[in-house]
Amino acid sequence: MHDEGRREVSKTNLIRNTIVLGGWTLISRGSGLARDVLMAGYLGTGAAADAFNVAFSLPNMFRRFFAEGAFNQAFVPMYSKKLEGGEDSGRFASDAFSGLTFVLLIVTLIGTLAMPWLVWAMAAGFVGDARFDLAVSFGRITFVYILFISLVALLSGVMNAHGRFSEAGFVPILMNLIFIAAIGLAVWAGWDMGQTLAWTVPVTGIAQLAFTWVAAHRIGFRARLHLPRWTPDLRHLLIIAGPAVLAGGVVQINLLVGRQVASFTEGAISWLVYADRLYQLPLGVVGIAVGTVLLPDLARRLRANDEAGAQASLNRSLEFALALTLPAAVALVVIAHALTFVLYQRGAFGPADTTATALALAIYGAGLPAFVLQKVWQPLYYAREDTRRPFQFALMAMVVNAALAVGLMPYIGFAAAAVATTLAAWIMLAQLIWGARGMGSAVQLDARSKQRLPRIIAAAAIMGAVLYGVAWAIAPWLYHMGWRYIALAGLIAAGGIAYFGSGAAMGAFKLSDFRALRRG
After folding, report:
1. How far, CA to CA in Å, does 513 sit from each of 316, 319, 320, 518?
2. Degrees (nearest 5) of the Cα angle 504, 505, 510?
3. If 0-12 CB within 10 Å is exposed, 13-18 middle and 19+ buried, where does residue 214 land?
4. CA-to-CA separations, 122 to 4, 136, 244, 406, in angstroms, rounded
5. Would you give the distance in Å from CA 469 to the centre of its chain?
6. What string of DSSP letters covers 33-90?
7. Calpha distance 85→108 (Å, rounded)
8. Rounded Cα–Cα distance for residues 502 and 506 (Å)
9. Phi, psi at 117, each rounded to 5°
10. Phi, psi dihedral angles at 380 (to 5 degrees)
11. pLDDT in tens, the chain (520 residues)
12. Could you tell me where the DSSP H helices lie in 474-509?
């Protein structure tokens, strides 16, 4: 009874931590949407917009390669286990921090010098027009961001292992607030918007690192820089991280392929970026939050040989992820055009931009459940320090992505990049699920999940039908410049009532699940 009660409290803490991080991520994505709405209105989808989006994607691509997508997936389980076992976790983290800083300084220097080649690798379609020189100029300004944000990612991993999710959740909000202020300042002072946004990138990186450094210091972690030491723990970390780094590289190759396909159509990179921002809202709120909280939790449970607790963590995370992701995916597909029109169409962002962005958004929306569920299944591997098989799976998904993007481009143009990304995501998820079959009871669906998951799907289908009907009925108001915000709010409210009402009636979820959070 005592162990059962402890597992129940821990499950409550897991969901509460997921909701805390998801709440911060929701605020982050909301502020990011406000930033993108301003960028769409003042920068549009022309040469400067395409150039900035490529320049800003370069440090972010390498950040996911070195930090969030690879290094941290190996670092967090090792740090969590040392913390749980009372070992010298602080020394291990400081060694990792110093080693990562050394590597990042070299990468930053090389990347800045090699910027023309990086832009060519990202967007060969820019060669021969103004976008290429602009992207190189912006890239040399923005690339140093990789140094700051990668160190932020490591410090955030330390805080997440200590159960401190709020501080790490505020970091991207800080970036968006600085961007919004910079856009307003550029409009007021008459500055060139592209140059202003480029210089804002390193400023945000410095601010984010300073904030995270102070937050880590408050929980007792002292990030002391020293010459890298080749310790047994660091060697083990690199051995584990190696396949994850390769897997991260495969994911970034997928991004490169998509950018290359889009670069041959002016404005297409910006269309994909604006669509990506909208589908990243539910992906960030649910998928990244669940994955970030689940990884250290599974690592601790597996160290303690708590198979029942690991199964409960996975199943509750799966229910939580699908309950919020499926309706979001349905909405992105069914009302993609209305969402894009209301949120983006103004100023330099015209009707043709709305149509193209909405098409990409609907395609991405169809892949949203796969993107999110990858965040649920991947921790099963990383918590066991198994980074080799996710790399193999990612390699297969990369081949599919490249073949589809290049093969479909002559027939459907820039949309081939979105179609390839979505189909590759589903193939990646299928491999993760199939590969986890031998992991024992921890990966099996329990009775509650088997009962609830089909009902969640049914509730999302009902919501989709309601959204379609209501959108058709209120179209005159939805596409009226003076009423569009009110009409969209009403449309979303109608969909929410349909989903949560039918879901509660069918038993897809219960209010008691959320009352448990307050009691915890």
Report:
1. 10, 11, 10, 10
2. 30
3. exposed
4. 52, 11, 22, 15
5. 31
6. HHHHHHHHHHTTTSHHHHHHHHHHHHHHHHHIIIIIIIIHHHHHHHHHHHHHTT--HH
7. 36
8. 6
9. -70, -35
10. -60, -35
11. 344 434 443 444 555 665 666 666 677 777 888 888 888 888 887 888 889 988 998 888 777 665 555 566 667 767 777 776 666 667 777 787 888 888 889 989 999 999 999 999 888 888 888 889 999 999 999 999 999 988 888 888 777 777 666 677 788 889 999 999 999 999 999 999 999 999 999 999 999 999 988 888 887 777 676 676 777 777 777 676 666 666 656 666 777 788 788 888 888 888 998 898 888 777 766 666 665 666 566 667 766 777 777 777 778 778 888 888 899 999 999 999 999 999 899 888 889 999 999 999 999 999 999 988 888 888 778 777 777 888 889 889 989 999 999 899 999 999 999 999 999 999 999 999 998 888 877 778 888 889 999 999 999 999 999 999 999 999 999 998 888 989 999 999 999 999 999 998 998 887 555 443 333 3
12. 475-478, 484-506
Q: Hey, what amino acid is at 200?
A: T
Query: Encoding tokens for residue 189?
Result: 């002072």
Residue 88 gets the label, from left (phi > 0), alpha (psi -120 to 50) or beta, of beta
